Amino acid sequence: KAKAEEIKAAEEADAAATAEANTFKTTHATILGKTTETVTSSDLPAITAALTAYEELSDAAKAKLVDGEKSLLDALKAKAEEIKAAEEADAAATAEANTFKTTHATILGKTTETVTSSDLPAITAALAAYEELSDAAKAKLVDGEKSLLDALKAKAEEIKAAEEADAAATAEANTFKTTHATILGKTTETVTSSDLPAITAALAAYEELSDAAKAKLVDGEKSLLDALKAKAEEPQYIMGDVNGDGKITAQDLTMLTNRILGTTSPAFVEAAADINGDGKITAQDLPLLTNLILK
Predict the structure, then answer these.
(1) What stretches of the chain adopt beta strand conformation (E)?
(2) In the chain, what is the straight-line distance between the N-terminal and C-terminal CA atoms, in Å?
């Protein structure tokens, strides 16, 4: 009797353990049907609940779980937590990348056709911010943001250099015009031989200008200076003043008469003697000179 009762108690205990184990497996069948290949981070609550329930099982019930349920749950938990950590890291990287794109949206909306030198501070700031991004966040920038910023920087610096060169050329040209304003204000009607030093100085200064500065002189400064020089270098004389003494007198008539007759004085001014402008010095110029003397 004692033995039979002992056996019966053992059988009842075993049946209870089997029932407890089966209840556990039924209750957590879904999660126990997962593998490390199919588990997801969203399974973590179910895994946690199953592990908690496992810890509450009797030792006899645990012993009935012969298919490695506990080891499976531990592996599923590790994998799900690994997946969750990766998802959280990915979400953080996405958020970091999105913040970068939002913060620098204006400059990232530029192209090498629309960028200007004034965009350089924004480009520099964006590139500095890019370098501070995590590698994961950089990997999320799949629209070539870094390449675009590099291209924009190169173009903006090129534009800035051109602008600075243009400004320097403008300043150089303006300095030339200011320095030589007086002679540049002359015309071929107002220039005199006494202006030759100023003309020469201006022409020398012009030759020393950079090509860019010369291109800024769009009002014909060089042509004007050349014309002024030619005019100022023309011989200065008074028509009829053939002896060049600055007056028209009978002495001029005598010198012209002698010239026509074949005697030429060293002081004779050829241009002043061709009074009728026919390119020759003849007796026809004599009456015209006489009229000039009588005026």
Answers:
(1) none
(2) 176
